[in-house]
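USER:
I would value a second opinion on how I read folds in token form. Give me a protein, with the fold worked out from its sequence. Write it directly below this note and I will take it from there.

ASSISTANT:
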Amino acid sequence: MEINVYEGVVLGACLVRAWAPVLRFPAMSGKELLALLCRKPLEYQVTRQVGSHRTLKAEGRPDLLFAFHDRTSIAPGLVRKILLGDVGLEEAEARKLLGG
């Protein structure tokens, strides 16, 4: 689902204002997000687990410490932060991965 978000962009000395479509990330359970990280194209693997804390590794990607219980609901903003910030995906890659 896309929503429109107002954003201002500075170009040179003038401010250009525009409405831009932004991907709305879904809330997910810990189990769903872990499955998303482990499937293609990310292919993270659990290399170590102590309780609910899992260390995930994937070739060419940063290591992750995944500390969510399977049934814990993860807010949309945190899903976005993990995929874009921690994993390093671009917005378009995340959109494709989430099926949007």
Observations:
- Residues 76-86 form the longest helix (11 residues).
- The domain at 25-97 is CATH 3.30.920.30 (Metal Transport, Frataxin; Chain A).
- Strands lie at 2-11, 14-23, 28-29, 45-50, 53-57, 64-66, 73-74.
